[in-house]
Amino acid sequence: MKPFAYFKASDEAAGVEAGTHPAARFIAGGTGLVDLMRLGVEAPAEVVDVNALPWGQIESTAEGLRIGALVRNTELAYHPAVTSGYPVLSQAILSGASPQVRNMATVGGNLVQRTRCSYFRDVGVAQCNKRSPGSGCAAREGFSRMHAILGGSDQCIAVHPSDMCVALAALDAVVFTRGSRGPRTIPLGDFHTLPAAHPEVENVLERGELVTHVFLPASALARRSTYVKSRDRASFAFALASAAVALELDGKVIRQARVALGGVGTRPWRSREAEQALVGQPMSRPLFERAGTAAVAGARPVRDNAFKVKLAARVIVRALERAGEMA
Ligand code: SF4
Hints:
Bound molecules: iron/sulfur cluster
């Protein structure tokens, strides 16, 4: 690891100011950045510690849930307002990483975590447009079993690794930030960017801009929500395909639906196609299968990951069945 300067931000303005330096990186839980610094993927000249900022609270109101950016993943997953009102979020967080990692990882860090593409994390591989723009993409001709079938480009097919963000996509989350131009509000669906020609850009945050908190609106949808994750191991494994779904029912008829996919998209993947297939229809296995098929209609698999097309459709079916059975 290369030597770096350390700065502990005592207030928001100091954090934003320090973070605007081109070679600075923010650190909170450190579960992403420290890994990448050890690997040599990241080599910041300055690390800006934001742990002293006042963003460690979860506030539950009739309107929804306000989650500070420094809330640890474990605290969020086990908070009573989350387990009862937003079960998909609790399940998604607990399906990811390990207890030790979840104890340290923060909500803000989870939102900006970087891909687990093995070529991106191996500095011995020269071709990676995300790490070295313009160098090529080793995954396109290499081992691509874990890569994306939705949202990829010729420049990059890396999967977004977060489980939490898939749940946030299904829950219509809104991200609040503070940057050098002041505060702003970003719907979760607009927060992460597609790789297109610039895979090195992964979200819409400007240099020095910090996530301060996330808001989840209260809804009947959120209460009837669930997360299903398919993976190679029962724990500490990233998704091959996962689904976050939320339903509002009128008897057996689906009044509203939210469907988001993980493990298959270059960003947390909200499927409006699946949602449209479900709304206004009585619940049934054939309906859920049509929704799953609709969600992957635009899939573009590469050599090793065609299996994800069926797998993603099936995790949607499983998740919809579970949500439909909830009391
Ligand atoms: Fe790099 Fe993206 Fe290609 Fe992986 S998929 S090697 S992150 S450019």
